[in-house]
Design a protein that fits this description.
- The protein is α+β, with helices and mostly antiparallel strands.
- About 40% of the residues lie in helices and about 15% in strands.
- The chain has 57 helices and 42 strands.
- The strands form 11 sheets. It has a 7-stranded antiparallel β-sheet with strand order 25-24-23-22-28-27-26.
- A hairpin with a 4-residue loop joins strand 13 and strand 14.
């Protein structure tokens, strides 16, 4: 029973204390005047009666009522019911009258001089109670007020006395009727169960005011301990809202500051640092604005404002959604049926009181789901005298898979949950609705998930129970309480509230207390019982994350591997090991491992040998590496007993345990883990203590069959607690003592265990334990008791964190401190006696010290063990001149998205991951290593790419499988379609990795193009720039400088009139100056120095020299081949030619990106060209680049037009022309220029103007629509294009057109064809009208810009070389290939090219004028020539084509390839690669038309970005001259090793081997190729997808030829044993083309070998092949005959060449220029025999060796040579031939038959040798030397040491001359 009310207080306005405007209240009377002993009088009631402050009002307000809540020091809540009414006061002096500044219910007084006569002061009647019966209080105080106001004849003292002596039961659902003696009657119902909160309607009201989402925010904020503030203008609502929030939190109890109504004077409480729930009147809203971390809920406005700095964690996901849905079902039942056609009539929300309970039911269910199975995570560590219970938070989160969940973690760490564990953890207590729900209904809730009807039914059931709890008796007898008459508070003459007689009230109270003392105490038997645990969580959550992780197969693998280890089948174990490590990702596999290892422990010990120990350790480490510090899955807990069991003998008496090798895990340094482990063990021991031994055995047997039988610790505890009161005192003491010593012994055990895992093996090293903040342990502790002893002891041990500045012994001190802290904490919590605790503190340092001593010995011995061998690092082969920048870093090459190497879809053992090293050289990044898979361990894996091709480098972290930790790694992607995904080995320091990245970056983006490998090759990698050496070729250098100077001079003279624009210096011209579509309109004013433009007859000698050089360029040779104009020495031109070679650009003054010599119409003077060039972008005016020999149509190229030129040239005449008359003159000149081109065509004159477009009917003319079929609409651009345009232009019937548009008869409709078609960009030619008077027609097409090519290429790389495996590789590959749109771009280029070919073939000229004229224009123009002219399909012709169209005409290789630092931002744009891809597509369709093979195209694709050669560096001829590159290949002597030009290199390889040759080459004469361009006809180039892991990319020929092949050695034929010729070939490992050669290569090889054996003169494969072909054909083809034009060219240049001869001298050896232009002679210039005068052409030099070998023997003599395998040493006569660069040998000096040749080009090194079996006996062993070639090693022996030295020197000098 309890008192209904403890105190009755009368509070009034205090007139004496009128301070600064606010008055104060004072307690006028209180009853009883003495405090109750059990309940002292609460302080500060006068503040709470008027929370907004005490003020006087000008009029009476109606009485108000609200309940405030005060909390006392024992956190007991006192409910203060305040009933306030107003009484008149006599107005004192008016000036001190308080102004009602806050705008309380009364209005502001008018500030008139007339003061009202009367003011009213508030007076409050207050009841203070510990029970929350608000309605009863309202009625009772109302009754008192009524008696007073209506003057009823009832004694107020009596009523108050009765009120204060009324007692009612607290719980139990009793109904009590009370009367206060004024003829009133009230019924009080007490709730059935005290623990459930009473909420009447407050929860429903809260939802009504704020809505579902807002309340959920507040709910989560309260649970996660945020500060919450309610605002409302109603006090009662504030109280209700706060009460509702607490009711929602049940079963958790709010334990922080809780003030539903905060008085104005106490507003500073809001800035307290602790969490709170507070209500404040909304007039103080402005004061709450500056609170930064408070969640403010405005009840009147229905808003919740969460400040930016506050992050509220919400419920974990499925629960949040389910809760929202359930709440909306309860609050808005109409929502479900809102869409129905026939609305059911019955649906309506429940009554407010019922709805309130339904909402609470939803939250009750929510908590049941959140906390389900919580009892399985309770550890009971003491049962007597008081149960001590701990909660295993990590396990609880782990079982749910919610370790990362913010909300749950915060809730479990919060105070409310701590209280929950203390209150509800006890195993033996009364239970309530929540206990039943969480134990019995969870299964049901799980089953009903998703079924709304069933969920609703369950909610209603729970709501019924909650409602029943609050209102046990449905039919309540009516209250009968007198109310005052209406409006009585407005009576004018109201007498003040009377002073009550204290004596009377006190007398009534005393009487009642006396009566209570005599009455027998009402004992209410509490129904205690064992709390049901409910099903364990695993039984509920039948979902273990990932189905795969638990597959039985994986567990099988783990079991097998462990049994192999223990059966000592190490090889088997090794094979399974990677799979086991992969399986360890799954939790089940980790559990399985711990169980399996457990089986192998006998009597707490398992001694292993070294290899077994190593395997077990690696598995344990792998198992632990995925554990967090919390160890939520209990893996570390399960391993803890095992790490002290497994061991190995290091030497007699010294044993190393597993724990010394698994210390590196963060879990061991987490004190919460140790606490949980300790409590778990203690619980097991306590449980064992209470199970009798007989029972124990019995239970053991049972549990083997039926695990349900074993009693849990909580059940035992509850049984014990039930028996406790019945036990005798001694028995109780005995049990307490037993438990205490159990805990104590565990504490000693744990002190030992912790020292095992915390002390490092090498204690001398000051190893800092992992950075998990071991230091401040108290703050992160898992338990909720804070104890003074723990505190004080921890203080006494210095609690600094870490031990950075410590001595070596400090490791020990540190561990001692850590263990002490742990011991203090757990022992004080589990009630260990103080003596024991002190004993422990003495023991711990000794334990640690002993352990350190043991470890020293172990460490010493373990040092002596041989380390486990890591595979030796293999050195990569390097090119000549390539040098290592960084020595190999040990790495693991991880598999990427390509499956073949990892043994993917094809099967086969995985070659990746592979262990090896990454090397950084000046040229490449190379990985070389061996696969980790033991089945292919003997293979070598090489993956490399040139540094210059690196496109993306990003840091990644990789989990290598053998390794426990995540490693840092790099992913390097290259545009040669290679990906290196590497993980650094742990031995590689992270700064080495950083240095590697820095070096890589420096090499990838050198400051200047001189820093690229092609320039630095052969220098030491340290210097970036060459030192200023004496210039070898002064004239050449000065020559190039002159050129550049002149160009700059000329350009400097141009005054710019329109926009302020100065042409940037070419070096700085990055992407920023010239955006892709540079619309800058530059007009250069006229006053230019004419002399620089018109070719004057008196040329300066340097200019003549320039011309001589310019003439040698490829384009010039080609112009002469095409008969496009000649250039005789005197530079006069023949007038009958339509075109001439103009030297207007020889100084690169007009257009820097054009070559020096250009073909222009004969009739156009040079100064006109100067003006025309301004109309075009980058000054790239139209020039002729090819002429059709049959139709004489020409192909021209230019940049796109500037806007102005277009206006003048094409727009219809009435369009207003822009700018001054100068514009017109320029456009007129432009028209003249085009007309001159048209006039050059032979058929033009006879057509007499009838071949213009005027012949077309208006229907054809309608619009540009006829070109509409070339669209940029992407993939599906119309395939009809070729048909439509091709056939219309070729004048052919559409129906008869084939699909790739091959024109048939060309006569039909011939006259309607225009003479010149200009192919331009659609966007530039907007509004162009076809002009019937002109003879040209504009073809507007849409093309893609460089940005699109870049984007497309990026996607193509990702498609062909994905970074990580995808689920369905084939589909993903095709999809991403399509998304890249690469093929549609190829399609577009081919389509345009075929169109142009058609036009040219039918006799029209074409001008291609797209973008800046150096990207797509170049692609199209080159393809057109390739398709139209068979010469360009030969090796020589293709080289010429590339040199002419790509190099001379200024494709920006350096810029597009981002080869220097300046181009880094612009990125890589593979325009040239795209062209080569197009050639590859044509090659596939016409395999017999090309002299070169597909390999040739791949070779160019690889090397144009590799920077190995200088050919593809820089952006134009002008830049190459500026660097002095253009003529150096003519001028400087070549070394044999380092090729600066890719063409020389290709020639050299081609002479040796037919790898670039296409045996199917059989061209048709005059064939014009018209390939299909539909995407369905295009193939993805295998260059993008294939790789050769055995040797890396095969494009660096010397490197891949290193391996000896079976066929190459003639001496190896007769080895003894018969060898199988068969070999396994792997798709991504072997180079198929080399391993299985084609028949022709094989035959050529055999011919070669036969000739070697017969000692015939070796001829090159090409000669052999040509001979074979010649004998095949009846008419012999003269391969070597020169065309007249090339003869003419060399004769025309001969005197120039001779005049240059002076400068080509070099240190006594003149170098010969290769004058001949035929295909098969050498282009390597050969030093002639020592005399400067001997300057013969190479072909003659070579022909003289064809007959006799006798001349040119630089050095000769007799040497012993070791034969091939198993052959004897024989003396042979050796001849060293410097000229032919070979070492020949004969049987004797007289012999003329050469027995064999060693090509010095293949020699790699000469080293001193050692005598082998069968060597000549008498010779000194220093006379032996070895000659290593790329194919084999030759062993030689001379007569004596001097001779041997002489030979070595001679051969060396030959090599160095090369």
């Amino acid at each position: 029973m309890a008192r209904l009310a403890d105190y009755f207080v009368l509070v009034g306005y205090d007139p004496g204390k009128r301070g600064s405007g606010d008055g104060q209240g004072q307690i006028l009377q209180r009853f009883p005047e003495k405090d109750w002993e059990d309940n002292p009088f609460p302080q500060g009631i006068e503040l709470f009666c008027q929370p907004s402050g005490w003020q006087l009002f000008p009029e009476r307000n109606p009485p108000t009522f609200f309940v405030a809540v005060l909390t006392d020091i024992n956190s007991e809540r006192h409910y203060c019911a305040c009933f306030t009414f107003w009484e008149a006061v006599e107005s004192p002096q008016p000036q001190s009258h308080p102004r009602n500044g806050e705008g309380e219910e009364g209005e502001e007084e008018p500030s008139s001089p007339v003061q009202p006569a009367q003011l009213f002061a508030p007076k409050s009647l207050v009841l203070v109670s510990r029970l929350d019966h608000a309605e009863v209080f309202r009625n009772s105080l109302g009754l008192i007020y009524t008696i007073y106001v209506d003057g009823l004849s009832v004694s107020l003292e009596n009523v108050i006395g009765n009120l204060l002596t009324c007692t009612i039961p607290i719980t139990g659902g009793a109904q009590r009727t009370i009367s206060l003696g004024a003829g009133d009657r009230q019924v009080i119902q007490t709730p059935i169960n005290d623990s459930l909160p009473v909420s009447s309607c407050s929860v429903a009201l809260l939802f009504r005011q704020l809505g579902i989402t807002n309340v959920l925010f507040l709910f989560c904020a309260a649970l996660t301990e945020h500060k919450i503030l309610f605002l409302s203008s109603s006090y009662q609502r504030l109280t209700d809202a706060c009460r509702a929030l607490l009711a929602l939190m049940f079963p958790l109890k709010y334990s922080f500051t809780y003030v539903p109504i905060l008085p104005a004077q106490l507003l500073e409480v809001l800035s307290t640092p602790t969490p709170f729930i507070i209500g404040v009147h909304s007039i103080f809203q402005s004061e709450t604005q500056e609170l930064l971390d408070v969640v403010i809920a405005d009840l009147d406005g229905g808003t919740v404002n969460v400040p930016e700095c506050v992050h509220i964690s919400l419920l974990p996901e499925p629960l949040l959604q389910q809760t929202r849905e359930a709440l909306s079902m309860v609050l808005d039942p109409e929502l479900e049926v809102a869409d129905l056609a026939f609305l059911p009539s019955t649906i309506s929300a429940s009554s407010l009181k019922m709805q309130d309970k339904e909402i609470r039911a939803v939250f009750l269910r929510l908590f049941a789901q959140l906390l389900q199975g919580y009892r399985w995570c309770l550890h009971i560590i003491r049962i007597h005298p008081e149960p001590v219970i701990r909660f295993h938070k990590a396990a609880f989160l782990g079982q749910r898979g919610l370790t990362e969940d913010d909300f749950l973690t915060k809730v479990l760490e919060g105070m409310a949950f701590a209280g929950f564990v203390t209150e509800r953890g006890a195993p033996y207590r009364p239970i309530d609705l929540f206990d039943e729900l969480v134990a019995y209904e969870v299964k049901r809730m799980r089953a009903e998930e998703g079924n709304k009807q069933k969920i609703l039914r369950h909610i209603k059931e729970l709501a019924e129970k909650l409602y029943k709890n609050e209102n046990p008796y449905p039919a309540v007898t009516m209250h009968k309480v007198q109310k005052p008459t209406e409006g009585c508070h407005l009576r004018l003459h109201q007498k003040p509230f009377p002073r009550l007689d204290e004596g009377t009230v006190q007398w009534i109270i005393d009487q009642a207390t006396a009566k209570l003392q005599t009455a027998p105490p009402a004992v209410k038997a509490e129904k205690k019982c064992m709390v049901p645990s409910g099903p364990p969580i695993a039984a509920i959550l039948e979902r273990n994350g990932n189905a795969l992780a638990n597959s039985a197969r994986r567990l099988e693998v783990v079991r097998n591997c462990i049994s192999y280890v223990f059966e000592n089948k190490m090889l088997e174990a090794k094979k399974l090991f990677p799979a086991v490590l992969r399986a360890m990702k799954g939790r089940a596999a980790r559990h399985c491992l711990t169980q399996e290892l457990n089986l192998h422990v006998q009597q707490n010990r398992a001694v292993l040998d070294h290899q077994q120990f190593d395997f077990v350790i690696r598995m344990m480490n792998c198992c632990l590496q995925d554990c967090t510090a919390m160890d939520e899955h209990g893996i570390a807990a399960a391993l803890l007993p095992l790490v002290t069991a497994f061991c190995r003998k290091l030497s007699p008496g010294i044993t190393q345990f597993a724990y010394s090798c698994v210390q590196e895990h963060v879990v061991w340094t987490n004190i919460q883990f140790w606490e949980a482990m300790f409590y778990c063990d203690v619980q097991n021991h306590i449980r064992a203590l209470y199970l009798d031994s007989s029972e124990e055995n019995h239970a053991e047997e049972e549990s083997m069959e039926e695990p349900q039988e074993a009693k849990s610790a909580l059940e035992i505890a509850s049984e014990q607690l039930r028996l406790w009161p019945t036990m005798s005192r001694e028995k109780q003491q005995e049990l307490i003592q037993k438990e205490e010593s159990t805990v104590f012994s565990q504490a000693i055990h744990y002190a030992n265990r912790m020292s095992y895992l915390l002390l490092p093996l090498d204690t001398s090293k000051n190893r800092l334990l992992r950075s998990s903040g071991l230091g401040d342990v108290e703050s992160v502790s898992n338990s909720f008791v804070t104890n003074s002893i723990a505190g004080s002891v921890a203080e006494s041990y210095d609690t600094e964190s870490g031990f950075e500045d410590a001595e070596s012994s400090d490791v020990a001190n540190y561990v001692v401190r850590f263990i002490n802290r742990f011991v203090d904490k757990v022992c004080t919590e589990s009630g260990v006696t103080n003596e024991h605790l002190k004993g422990l503190h003495v023991m711990i340092p000794d334990i640690v010290q002993m352990h350190i001593e043991t470890l020293d010995a172990v460490h010493r011995e373990s040092k002596r063990l041989p380390p486990i061998q890591k595979p030796k690092l293999l050195r990569p082969n390097l090119l000549v001149g390539e040098e290592c920048v960084m020595e190999g870093l040990r790495v693991c090459l991880m598999p990427d998205g390509r499956e073949e190497a990892a043994g993917g879809s094809i099967g086969g053992p995985p070659l990746l991951p592979a262990e090896g090293a990454i090397f950084l050289t000046t040229y490449r990044i190379i990985f070389k290593g061996t696969p980790t898979d033991p089945l292919v361990g003997e293979q070598v894996v090489i993956r490399s790419f040139p540094i210059a091709s690196l496109t993306k480098e990003k840091k990644i972290s990789i989990q290598a499988q053998a390794d426990p930790f995540l490693q840092e790694g790099l992913q390097l992607r290259s545009c040669t379609f290679q990906l290196l995904k590497i993980a650094f080995d742990e031995e590689v320091a992270s700064d080495s990795a950083e240095i590697f990245r820095k070096h890589l970056h420096k090499l990838r983006y050198p400051q200047h193009v001189r820093g690229t490998f092609a320039f630095t090759v052969g220098q030491s990698p340290k210097q970036a720039m060459q030192p200023k050496a004496k210039e070898k070729n002064p004239s050449l250098r000065t020559l190039s400088k002159n050129l550049v100077k002149n160009a700059k001079k000329t350009i400097g003279r141009q005054y710019v009139t329109r926009k302020k624009y100065t042409p940037p210096a070419w070096e700085q011209r990055g992407s920023q100056h010239f955006p892709e579509d540079n619309e800058d309109e530059i007009s250069v004013s006229e006053d230019m120095d004419r002399s620089t433009l018109t070719p004057s007859t008196t040329m300066r000698p340097s200019d003549k020299m320039t011309n001589a050089h310019v003439v040698e360029r490829a384009c010039c040779r080609d112009y002469q081949r095409l008969g496009l104009g000649t250039l005789s020495s005197s530079l006069t031109r023949s007038k009958n030619e339509p075109f001439r070679i103009s030297t207007v650009n020889r100084m690169y003054a007009i257009c820097r990106s054009y070559p020096g010599l250009l073909i222009v119409p004969q009739s156009i003077p040079d100064n006109t060209i100067q003006r025309i060039s301004r109309c075009y972008r980058q000054n790239r005016f139209p020039v002729v680049c090819w002429r059709n020999s049959r139709t004489k149509a020409v192909l021209l190229r230019s940049g796109g037009l500037h806007g102005k030129g277009v206006v003048g040239l094409f727009k219809s005449q009435n369009a207003p022309t822009a700018g001054p008359s100068q514009t017109d003159s320029t456009s007129l000149e432009q028209e003249k220029y085009l007309q001159a081109v048209i006039n050059s065509m032979p058929h033009y004159s006879d057509a007499s103007g009838r071949n213009t477009l005027s012949g077309f009917t208006s229907a054809h003319m309608s619009s540009a629509g006829k070109w509409g079929s070339i669209r940029a609409s992407g993939r599906m651009s119309s395939y009809a294009l070729n048909v439509e345009i091709g056939s219309r232009l070729a004048g052919k019937d559409l129906l008869g057109a084939q699909h790739n548009g091959t024109p048939a008869e060309t006569t039909f409709l011939r006259q309607h064809r225009a003479s010149l078609y200009i192919i331009g960009d659609k966007s530039q030619l907007k509004g162009v009208k076809p002009d019937p008077l002109q003879h040209w027609e504009v073809v507007p097409i849409e093309v893609f810009d460089v940005r699109q090519v870049k984007a497309s290429f990026k996607k193509l790389m990702k498609a062909c070389v994905p970074g990580c495996p995808s689920s369905d590789p084939s589909v993903a590959y095709l999809r991403s290939l399509e998304e890249s749109e690469w093929l549609s771009q190829i399609h577009k280029i081919l389509q345009i090219s075929v169109l142009v070919v058609e036009l040219l073939d039918t006799g029209s000229s074409v001008l291609v004028s797209l973008e800046d004229g150096w990207d797509i224009t170049t692609q199209v123009v080159s393809l057109v020539q390739l398709l139209s002219d068979r010469y360009y399909r030969t090796l020589e012709g293709f080289r010429l084509l590339v040199e002419k169209e790509w190099l001379s005409f200024g494709h920006r290789f350096s810029h597009r390839g981002a080869q220097t630092l300046a181009g880094q931002s612009s990125g890589f744009a593979p325009i040239f690669l795209q062209f080569l891809d197009c050639v590859h597509q044509i090659h596939l369709q016409f395999p017999m038309e090309f002299e070169f093979s597909q390999y040739y195209l791949k070779f160019l694709s690889y090397h144009y970005i590799s920077n190995r050669f200088r050919t593809f560096l820089l952006d134009s001829d002008y830049e190459r001259i500026e660097l002095g590159l253009l003529y150096e290949e003519k001028g400087e002597r070549k070394s044999q090793q380092v090729h600066k030009s890719i063409w020389d290199y290709i020639d050299r390889i081609n002479r040796k081997t037919p790898v670039f040759f296409n045996y199917m080459f059989a061209p048709e004469d005059g064939e014009v190729l018209r390939p299909y361009s539909n995407i369905s006809n295009l193939k993805v180039w295998d260059y993008y997808t294939e790789e050769t892991l055995s040797e890396g990319p095969s494009y660096d020929w010397e490197l891949t030829q290193g391996q000896p092949e079976h066929v190459e050695e003639p001496d190896r034929q007769d080895t003894g044993a018969p060898q199988s010729k068969r070999r396994i070939i792997w798709p991504c490992y072997d180079n198929r083309s080399r391993v299985e050669p084609d028949a022709i290569s094989r035959l050529l090889q055999e011919l070669h070998n036969l000739k070697m054996e017969l000692g015939h003169v070796q001829e090159r494969w090409k000669e052999t092949w040509d001979g074979v072909k010649a004998s095949q054909r009846t008419e012999a083809r003269q391969e070597g005959s020169r065309t007249p034009s090339s003869l003419l060219m060399s004769s025309g240049l001969s005197h120039h060449r001779r005049s240059l001869g002076v400068y080509l001298q070099e240190s006594g050896v003149g170098s010969t220029l290769n004058l001949s232009l035929d295909s098969d002679t050498s282009s390597t210039s050969t030093p002639s025999s020592g005399k400067p005068g001997g300057r013969r052409s190479t072909s003659t030099l070579y022909s003289q060796f064809q007959t006799s070998e006798s001349e040119n023997r630089s050095y000769e003599g007799s040497l012993y040579k070791k034969g091939a395998f198993m052959k004897p040493w024989k003396p042979r006569w050796f001849v060293l031939d410097k000229t032919k660069h070979q070492l020949r040998y004969y049987d004797s000096r007289m012999d003329t038959e050469c027995k064999g040749v060693i090509d010095l080009a293949e020699v790699e090194s000469i080293t001193p040798g050692t005598p082998t079996m069968g060597a000549p006996k008498t010779v000194d062993e220093k006379a032996f030397f070895d000659l290593k070639t790329t194919k084999r090693v030759y062993n030689f022996c001379a007569q004596d040491v001097q001779l041997a030295q002489q030979w070595i020197d001679r051969i060396q000098s030959c090599l160095s001359d090369a």
